Amino acid sequence: MITRLSTLFLRTLREDPADAEVPSHRLLVRAGYVRRVAPGIYSWLPLGLRVLRNIEAVVRQEMDAIGGQEILFPALLPREPYQTTGRWTEYGANLFRLHDRKGGDYLLGPTHEELFTLTVKGEYSSYKDYPVILYQVQTKYRDEERPRAGILRGREFLMKDSYSFDLSDEGLARSYQAHREAYIKIFDRLGLRYVIVSAMSGAMGGSASEEFLAEAETGEDTFVRSTESGYAANVEAVITPAPPERPLDGLPPARVLHTPDTPTIDTLVGHLNGAGLGRTFSAADTLKNVMVKTRQPGAQRWELLGVGIPGDREVDMKRLEASLAPAEVALLDDTDFAAHPFLVKGYIGPGSLADNGVRYLVDPRVVVGTAWATGADQADHHVVDLVCGRDFTPDGTVEAAEVWAGDPSPDGAGTLVAARGIEIGHIFQLGRKYTDAFALDALGSDGKPIRITMGCYGVGVSRLVGAVAEQSHDAHGLIWPREVAPADVHVVIAGKDAAIGAAGERLAIELDAAGLRVILDDRPATPGVKFADAELIGVPTILVVGRGLASGVVEVKDRTTGERTEVPVDGVVAHLNELCAK
Amino acid sequence: MITRLSTLFLRTLREDPADAEVPSHRLLVRAGYVRRVAPGIYSWLPLGLRVLRNIEAVVRQEMDAIGGQEILFPALLPREPYQTTGRWTEYGANLFRLHDRKGGDYLLGPTHEELFTLTVKGEYSSYKDYPVILYQVQTKYRDEERPRAGILRGREFLMKDSYSFDLSDEGLARSYQAHREAYIKIFDRLGLRYVIVSAMSGAMGGSASEEFLAEAETGEDTFVRSTESGYAANVEAVITPAPPERPLDGLPPARVLHTPDTPTIDTLVGHLNGAGLGRTFSAADTLKNVMVKTRQPGAQRWELLGVGIPGDREVDMKRLEASLAPAEVALLDDTDFAAHPFLVKGYIGPGSLADNGVRYLVDPRVVVGTAWATGADQADHHVVDLVCGRDFTPDGTVEAAEVWAGDPSPDGAGTLVAARGIEIGHIFQLGRKYTDAFALDALGSDGKPIRITMGCYGVGVSRLVGAVAEQSHDAHGLIWPREVAPADVHVVIAGKDAAIGAAGERLAIELDAAGLRVILDDRPATPGVKFADAELIGVPTILVVGRGLASGVVEVKDRTTGERTEVPVDGVVAHLNELCAK
Hints:
Two copies of one chain form a homodimer. By secondary structure, the first copy, chain A, is an alpha+beta fold. In chain A, helix 1 packs across helix 12, helix 2 (46-65) packs antiparallel against helix 6 (169-189) and helix 2 (46-65) packs across helix 12. The relative contact order of chain A is 0.14.
């Protein structure tokens, strides 16, 4: 099919839209791919819809290749299944909720674990039925507090979500691995630069969850990567390398010092360095004890927890929460301090925590044999040379300290640098959360029930349009990888001469007949306007039919490199056919 | 791709679902095509999704063929555009409304006239841009009071809706005609038996709106058709043929009679026939005057209207409303009668209506020269031989009387019979309702604005799955037309013999290689179970690989006719390839 710009429902814009913060948003609007309807809610115009469908097709092919079976759930869902799993309330304000005419509670599905689990339970019963991978490409809804960056974070968006159902943990690991490989194929085919980051700390089971992040300075997700190896991880998932333990023999004894007015690390370090102790202290030599409280899921009571980290770093609450999940974490308030008078604010030390049975977790750098300056559990007093393993024994370690650029990479190769990305995929070994909620069992060969274990796997299909655009553009416009481009060749009729017009038409027809997808700019516009639009629209190959025709040549321009090649008009169809097949 | 029943996510049911009222619903559930999630809300399982996608592809091809350009709107829409057109309230309880987290009003789109109009206004400005046809295949929402018949009347459903934008009425007529022809192609390709009915009475502009109804006894829509010609129409659109006018000369004069206790037609006819008038009266000789009130859009005041129809028929309010649209219509209540004492209930005649300036419309059968028995505007009195055009002069005619089977067909050929159908398509010359609401103008060549005129055109894509199933099934299961079937050939391995299994596998692979879509029943089930499932699933051609293999033959069964043919195993791929190409 030839797409003629003379009739295509497309008007490109010369000006950037006022609300566009990132290049992909700006260019997708300017090039006429999407239009805003409401915050985070967009329409797809003809070229945008083509790119979306191309990406959808790639995703579908790779899901089918691993044996995924496509089904389709509604977006409008009854409350009950989400009530059963607690997500009706857990989703909070992110969930679009509504009533039907009879007052029944409904929601717009943000993700479909409940429905997939119930459907498998409805159809399958025997161990012989498993494993199974089901997926859908479906419109999802999340009432984001801050929809942003056009289609990168929308409130209505297209996702591929798949779910694996296995009889065993080993089966789940295989389904997970199959998805991981399929996702690599998908994102490679889309020409994306991306990293796969561990999404959860080791405490939660290592590779049970990974995110695929398209590298982009404008991305919302931060992650760290090694300067030397392929290591990359969410900040929450970074595991701090522990230094080797040190011998306790010969270490100086702990000493309590009067350190008036030193409630902060800075004041403490200043005081110590002026105290004539014969050595220099830095913030890294101090042990900062931060008090939080935690509550296990379903529990009523909060429990105190002391977190000890080197004084030069702050606590990163997201890392702490990820480390302690599924428990809730909160900072102590004044009431809590009042209820526990042994907590001397600004001067808390490991001693009173141990004396009062408060759990105490420390940064992995706090190993046996390390000596610290820390609180002495009385106002205006600190202790120095308090040695881990001799003077105090923590209850374990915790990933709570912030991660810094320059920290050693957990895999031992190089140091960490910070980077930003756009989450384009997420794979997750869910386990039995949902199958427990709905009692999804298979009858085993021995007649006993086997609780099914699940994985869930998502690809942001509409977001990928934005992610590809974010990575692939220049000052003039979009530059689509061939697999997702709205056409293979953009033919520009550059000149009012009838022979030029006729040649353009003929070449478009021949290219179309050769199986290429062709955009033909047959508008009565100037070559300048046409060239600008071709660059903006971003089809990978531009064929200019212009003055050269008199000498029997046309110009083939590579949108990516900008390289122009003159090609004899008689050979150009074969030339482009070969080019596009690559 | 070969679909293996050993792994397909499909469990057929032996029992009919309890809530299924119609065959298509029963069979689509039993054959594992759809599953109910909530009233009027369904999931599509793998085979159902394939049929849905096949239908979608046919619709898309025919829309592209008439130059339609596909775009995609969101389902979640802001209130404002619908407020502008009044549909935010007009839709009443049928509209799903919701709030977002900031309290903004949103709706789930039931149809997208507003968005299409605004989008065209956003992109286009010159007369040179027009005409344009835009369409989408998109999920729609209507909170039906009584969702029924499975996917035939759902609350979440898939529709193709298209909209034409033209500079002139002639252009609109062309766009309308193009859609009409495209719809005929679509429904023909889907193998449907259907009629095209006028959806509106002549008063509203003739063929400005037509519905495509798939014939089905279980359909919700009633229509009438001629016993002899191709005439078919919604009951609302039936135009009553008027008899020829008769000369007034020599007709007996009108006479007022004392007719005590005759407030109904039956009591009146009984009285007249016992009154010694020398002739026999039937209900058809009486003129029943029904009082209603009407209100024009935007008007505050209701106005009285008298409707005169032959006494043997009742008023069909839907026909009356269609005739008087866009005015509202309501019956008079006691207050109205009290306010107009000249209305003598049970004895109302044309006289007092004329005397009191009340508009009076009559059935088209009430022509000049016809004589009637009717009310004399005083209690217990009627008048006979009241002649139209002599004794009273109506203000016009109205289609208010019910239509009966046996009535003459409006086109003069044969008589009418009642029939039922499922609305599968609707084409409508909308005109300027929405372009007026949003001031969609094109700048004309003379520099003056031209108000654009619109058509809207819908196909119920998900409903079509049900409509095709409703027309195409038997006692054993579904029978899909080839173009929409989930596969071309259903290969049944009928026997545990290894050679039979191997031959089935090999044939499936060869058929797949030949480009056919193959379902392979490779399950370890009995032939009886497999045959029953093959009939239930309804693929048009069933290939049975069984005992005949020993003699070098396999069996090809036509699902529609039940015809079985033995074919040499060596020639069966060629045979089926030819069969499926038909």
